[in-house]
Write a structure and sequence with these properties.
The chain has 132 residues and is mainly alpha-helical. Helices cover 55% and strands 6% of the residues.
Amino acid sequence: MVNRVMQILEQGIDGASRRQSHISNNIANADTPGYKREDIDFKSALRKLAGPERGLSLSRTRNNHLAGKDISNSGLNNFKERNSSFRVDGGNVDIEREMAEMAKNNIYFNTLTQQMDASFTRLQSVLDRSGG
C-alpha cells in the first residue's frame, strides 16, 4: 500500500513538474508573435480516472467500505490552445492567467511533496520501530 501511495504521489509530482515547464514556457513566449499557449490536460486525465473501467485494488475489511479508484497511468496529455487569439499578433498568452496558473501549480506541487515527505517519515518510523 505504501508503494502504491508513493507511485500516485510521484505521478502527481511529475505532472505538476511538466505543467510548470509549460507555464514557464508560456510566460517566456508571451511576447512572441503568433505563439499559442501550451498546457497539460488534467481534466481529461481525471475524467478517465473516474471512469468505470478503472479501479484501485484495495482490500476492503468491511462490506460497508467504499471501493477506491486507480489513478496510475493517468495519461496526462500536452495540448496547445490553437483556437484562440486575443492579441493583434495572433498570440494567446495572457500573462496574468499564466501567473495565476503558476501559483496554483506551485501549491499543488508543494502539497504533493509534503505528502511524499510525510510518507517517507511514516515509513522511516516503521523501520525504526521494527529494528530494520
